[in-house]
Amino acid sequence: MPDVRVAPHLDHLNLGSNCITDRGVLGLVHAASRAPRERLERLMLSGNKIGDGGAMALARALEVGVAFPALKMLAIGTNANMSSG
Fold first, then answer.
1. In this structure, are residues 50 and 81 in contact, taking their beta carbons and an 8 Å threshold?
2. Which of 39, 27, 19, 33 is nearest to 62 (CA)?
3. Burial label, 13 (beta-carbon count in 10 A; 0-12, 13-18, 19+)
4. N or C end of the chain: which has fewer CB within 10 A?
């Protein structure tokens, strides 16, 4: 996976309706986990193609605190259940 830089001052990110798949969610989680001072508070992922795998990966990352430590709001509704993300 390519190295992705995260903007340390970014606090809102709207990626809604961008055809993001499970693979894209894994990339976001990977990038956020490599940014210890990342302070994203609002992440909008609605209207994409995130399936169960991507949703579970995001939930696990949030649960164990490996990514998005400052997250207060997550929008992930209206995603197509794509099995091959």
1. no
2. 33
3. middle
4. N
Dist CA 81 CA 31 (whole Å)? 23
Place of tokens 């949030």: 62
pLDDT for 22: 96
Predicted pLDDT at 42: 96
- Per run of 10 residues, the mean pLDDT along the chain (length 85 residues) is 63 95 95 83 97 96 92 94 52
d(CA 46, CA 64): 23
43-79 CB burial, b ≥16 within 10 A, e <16 = bbbebbbbbebbbebbeebbeeeebbeebeebebeeb
Task: Tell me the angle at which helices 52-64 and 22-33 cross, rounded to the nearest 10 degrees.
Answer: 20
